[in-house]
Amino acid sequence: MFIDDFIEGIRSYPKAWFFISQHRLWHFVLWTGLFSIILWLSGIYAAWWLADALNNYLFLWFGENLWQGGLLKQIGIVLLLIPIITLMLKFYKYFVLSLFSPLLSIIAEKVQEIDTQQKSPTGIRVFWNNFMRSLYMNLRSLVAELFLTAACFVIAFIPIINIFTPLLLLTVDSYFWGAAMLDYRHEFHGLNGKDSMAWTKKHKGLAIANGIVWNFLLLIPIIGALVGIVLSVTAAGLAANTLQKKAS
């Protein structure tokens, strides 16, 4: 089950690309992509600035002799960048989920309407309820993810086991991103928060796969931030529909 769900989650990204092209949804990519790039570049700049500032503080604290030739200072920046960028990516993710929540809901609804030939209820009240639901789910996920991330950093101090820390961090981060993308689809089909989480836990392989591909897309400068979000929410919806059809 897990492997099948995971494979479907990976395969859904090429499907999402062709789906967006076929139904001319690239205007959604443009709007989300531009704002995403601004957030992504701002986060990278902030991470570098913070790492440099902390490193300069250590430079002054321990003395100039320790940083002979500036080599250790550069090494210090790199070592500080790793945890800082990790945290930056997490907060970037939840900034995206919070700021783009209304737009992601619209995109998910459009995908579901095309793929399932169903119509969702509309109106200001429905829109507001969906927006508040998304904020609540995202906040809940953020607290849970930060707790699990802290646990992973604790594991990093345990010999032998600590070699799995990067994989654990990637898995945790990917699961919660995928869960958020799936929740927009579940929202369309009327699942409440509890049922949405239960469905995602049952198909955790899909959630993890969706988040892993999104994380790797972010490694592609500019392009990943431009297309990643819309591809991710589209892929999640299409994959979940496929699994639902197989189960019925």
Automatic annotation (TrEMBL):
<protein>
    <submittedName>
        <fullName>CysZ protein</fullName>
    </submittedName>
</protein>
<feature type="transmembrane region" description="Helical">
    <location>
        <begin position="212"/>
        <end position="240"/>
    </location>
</feature>
<keyword id="KW-0764">Sulfate transport</keyword>
<dbReference type="InterPro" id="IPR059112">
    <property type="entry name" value="CysZ/EI24"/>
</dbReference>
<keyword id="KW-0472">Membrane</keyword>
<keyword id="KW-0997">Cell inner membrane</keyword>
<feature type="transmembrane region" description="Helical">
    <location>
        <begin position="71"/>
        <end position="92"/>
    </location>
</feature>
<dbReference type="InterPro" id="IPR050480">
    <property type="entry name" value="CysZ-like"/>
</dbReference>
<keyword id="KW-0813">Transport</keyword>
<keyword id="KW-1133">Transmembrane helix</keyword>
<keyword id="KW-1003">Cell membrane</keyword>
<feature type="transmembrane region" description="Helical">
    <location>
        <begin position="142"/>
        <end position="164"/>
    </location>
</feature>
<feature type="transmembrane region" description="Helical">
    <location>
        <begin position="28"/>
        <end position="51"/>
    </location>
</feature>
<dbReference type="GO" id="GO:0000103">
    <property type="term" value="P:sulfate assimilation"/>
</dbReference>
<dbReference type="Pfam" id="PF07264">
    <property type="entry name" value="EI24"/>
</dbReference>
<keyword id="KW-0028">Amino-acid biosynthesis</keyword>
<dbReference type="GO" id="GO:0019344">
    <property type="term" value="P:cysteine biosynthetic process"/>
</dbReference>
<dbReference type="GO" id="GO:0005886">
    <property type="term" value="C:plasma membrane"/>
</dbReference>
<dbReference type="GO" id="GO:0009675">
    <property type="term" value="F:high-affinity sulfate:proton symporter activity"/>
</dbReference>
<keyword id="KW-0812">Transmembrane</keyword>
